[in-house]
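Hi L.,

You mentioned the student needs an example of a multi-chain input paired with its predicted structure. This one should do, with 541 residues in total across all chains.
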Amino acid sequence: MDTIKQTETTRPSSFTGIKGYILKAENLRAFYGAFLAVKDVNLEIKPKSITAIIGPSGCGKSTLIRCFNRMHEVAHGARITGKVLLDGEDIYAPGIDPVSIRTRIGMVFQKPNPFPTMSVLENVVAGRRLTSVLSKRIEMEEIAEKFLKQAALWDEVKDKLKQSGTSLSGGQQQRLCIARALAVEPEVILMDEPCSALDPIATLKIEDLMRGLAKDYTIVIVTHNMQQAGRVSDMTAFMMMGDDRAGGLIEYGRTDQIFTNPKDKRTEDYITGRFG
Amino acid sequence: MLGLNSLGAGIAIVVVCLMLGYIIAHGLSFINLDFITGSAVPAGQAGGGMHNEIIGTLILVGLGSIIAMPIGLMTGIFLSEFGTPFTVSVVRFATDILAGVPSIVVGVFAYAIIVKPMHTYSAFSAGAALAIIMIPVVARTTEESMRLVPGAMREAALALGITRWRAVISVVVPGALAGIVTGIMLGVARISGETAPLLFTALGNSFGYSGLGNPIGALPLQIYRYALSPYKNWQQQAWAGAFVLVVIVLIVSIAVRWLSRKRRV
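Structure written out for the whole complex:
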């Protein structure tokens, strides 16, 4: 709980000093069959920070982050070229198991998707339980409490742990999905428009939560909501679809710089609401 | 149009009521303790019952289910989760054909590949014949109910680092469980009344169960034989057997209804 109290929507000033990166895309291209959806993305994600990816609909934002945890290839005929480095190691190198990558890079989806056949408690520990040998029940409850607290959901659901995960409100369900992703203890959490199905109050709660989590985790969030990117992120990447219908990275930099002093005309046009 | 529809629906209801009423009227009065617990008696004698045939039907349906369930479930899971568009269309076409094969042909087939080489009619060959009839029912209902589980559930599981197989078994199958159980029950209801495949395989056995490798009695078979016989006692017992068979199928059907209603909630 203490993580959420001190999180204001302003960016921590200490951030600017962070050097290096945890996740890096090199000449990344993503395909659906023969269709090139994302082209030549080079991007360095800084550790323990929030990176927002913004851009108009259909520009490949979601496709890009799905390449970061090898979820892109789940779709039939989808593939990539180029590299994605996690801690310097190419996650697409031969012999790397995509399943192991996904335990290190978690994901939260647009629509809250708790498992309907599982209780709140079972949902939180689902990743742990189904990726390893069954642990003891007591341990499960400790784990669930720890991560529900991290997801700022514990106080609201501590009396409902046995209820179905889908009995919660939309915002609670999304925080439950965040707790479920956290429980696998990933290094990076990808969020694909996590608030687009939520009301403004639930959205603010998730944003507060994200700021708190950024102390321990690296977060990459896709959002179509520029205000949200401005509120929560340290770095912002702006993507746009080119004339060939393939999405590309236009500009990447500190969020305040992107929003106040964009270098590219197209970024400026998008930020100022001239299109999108 | 409404009139025609109502007429059709009315006829369907009337037929069901007439048939059930007829069977109850003829069969119920011959149901007694002896019928349930007694064995068949020689023609002309009074008394006797279908105890061995009731047990035989339960064994055959159980045997058929044990063979058909894993094959049907695996086929359904393959169709829904693992097949490529081409293999799915091939397998689905094959199950559709299998579902359309007349049951007497299934019986002849089981006779040719199991009874003849083994040189004996057997409970096993009858169970296998019933399983062939049940497999497509289970496979298609399993596939359909698994496809109803949203893709978001599979994605959520995969994104947690859960393997594909584990995601299917621990997330998709539980989500589709009510539908899968309904499919199994439908299959059970379907095979418990089958007679034709048993003619060439089970043969009938009035002395009770004597191992899977030997002939076995079954309710539908005995009803068929007794109904054709000229003996009053046997004809009455055929009605009673029909009544018991209908009750068994009715119980299974009601269970199906109950389960599929739960599924919608």
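You could point out the following to them. Chain B touches chain A at residues 150, 152-153, 155-163, 166-167, 170-171, 174-175, 177 (CB under 8 Å). The CA atoms of residues 41 and 48 of chain B lie 5 Å apart.

Best wishes,
N.
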